[in-house]
Amino acid sequence: MLDNQKILVCVTGGIAVYKSVSLVSKLTQAGAQVKVIMTKSAMEFVTPLTFQAISRNDVFFDTFDEKDSRVIAHIDLADWADLVIVAPATANVISKLANGIADDMVTTTLLASTSEIWIAPAMNVHMYENKAIIRNIKSLDQDGYKFIEPSEGYLACGYVGKGRLEEPEKIVNLISNHFERNTYFPLKGKKVVVTAGPTRERIDPVRYVSNFSSGKMGYAMAQAAQALGAETVLVSGPVELDKPIGVTVIEVESADEMLQAVLSHYEDASIVIKSAAVADYRPKEVQLHKMKKKTGDSQIELERTTDILQVLGSKKTSQLLIGFAAETQDSIRYGKEKIERKNLDYIIVNDVTDPDGGFGNDSNVVTLLSSKGLNRPFPAMTKKKLANELLETICIEESDSLNDR
Ligand code: CTP
After folding, report:
1. For residue 375, which phi and psi values (nearest 5 degrees)?
2. The ligand 1 atom nearest the CA atom of 308
3. Could you confirm whether 157 is annotated as catalytic?
């Protein structure tokens, strides 16, 4: 199941250390190569010899005890690991990590690691609810650390509540899923076209009509499609973002240019994701020269741009068509109505008034609706994480139909 995956388990000092023994044992039995680092406090509960015997590897606990003179142990361990897991993670290690403190073998290795780091907290319920701990967990979450939430139940201190280290079986399952997902390319051989950002509709050579879209959601969707194995084309309006790696980017300015770019990639596309905030109107006439101000008020006559998504919907053959809807009220009702009107397969409905989401924010909170009646809310999370979850959900929903697209 975990054949030769290299997992570094960092054990810090709490009563739940006994569960880490079981975790290391299960990981080893599943075929993983496991190395263990312990803090001094962890060694008050279980000796390094226990972990050494179970992992069949040296156990590390002293930054200055270099077992192999050819390498620096904490850097070598950090580089070695495919995945690092801190279990149990005490309030102390969480707080040190959140502040970049490196004063022992566990924390120096964690700071040196570029692999994914998972943190499985275990502590008294009141410690877990302490404001400093909540703050530190939030800041680690924003830094990209993943958390395995503690479960609720009887705690060693006598309290009943949230704070128990998650059961080793569950942690092993999560780790297996993680490695499976990294070899999971459901969009391999598929072409995915994503649009992102605002469009600009020129008034004259120095002015335009536009909107506040940052492009972050569309760029995250393109990166997520690429990570799931798709050949990805991103048609982007003017934004201030780095180009996603491994994605072909076509830069456009107006709704009309976006329409042409998308149409030229539509026929052989398997999936089209329209995250762009396309301007609905453009100036009826574009002035060749800069407009001069005059006394009194002024008016600019606007005309409708082409609804790109509607055109794609009307030309749809085998493509899976995914739209976005930015709403400020009645978002589900409007979303359903747009699925019908634009002949979509999915729409990702976005209430732009929600403080956790909307234009420019790094996070978003949405509901995924489908023409088949799916109605799945996604809680607030980073746009990058959300893009992955949305696309993975759609891949699972469409697992039977993807081959024919
Ligand atoms: N869209 C498009 N072309 C347009 C306008 C919108 O392709 N000219 C697409 C957007 O990319 C998005 C979806 O339509 O995927 C919904 O956009 P939204 O602005 O929420 O809705 P509209 O259809 O413009 O409807 P309304 O303005 O009435 O909310």
Report:
1. -145, 90
2. 7
3. yes
Give the Cα separation of 278 and 313 in Å (integer). Answer: 16
Q: Which residues contact 63 (CB under 8 A, 6 or more apart)?
A: 73, 74, 104, 105, 108
CA-wise closest residue to 94 among 59, 138, 36? 138
Residue 344 is which amino acid? L
Number of H helices, E strands in the chain: 13, 20
Look up the pTM and report it.
0.63
The predicted model gives 310-335 an average pLDDT of 95
Which structure tokens are listed for 59?
A: 């156990």
Q: Residue holding tokens 């005890």?
A: 65
pLDDT grade for 67, boundaries at 50, 70 and 90: confident
- Ligand 1 neighbours by CB, cut-off 6 Å: 255, 274, 276, 278, 280, 305, 307-309, 323-326, 338
Ligand 1 geometric centre to CA of 375 (Å): 20
Parallel/antiparallel/unpaired status of strands 116-121 and 83-89? parallel
Measured from the CA of 311, which atom of ligand 1 is nearest?
Answer: 7
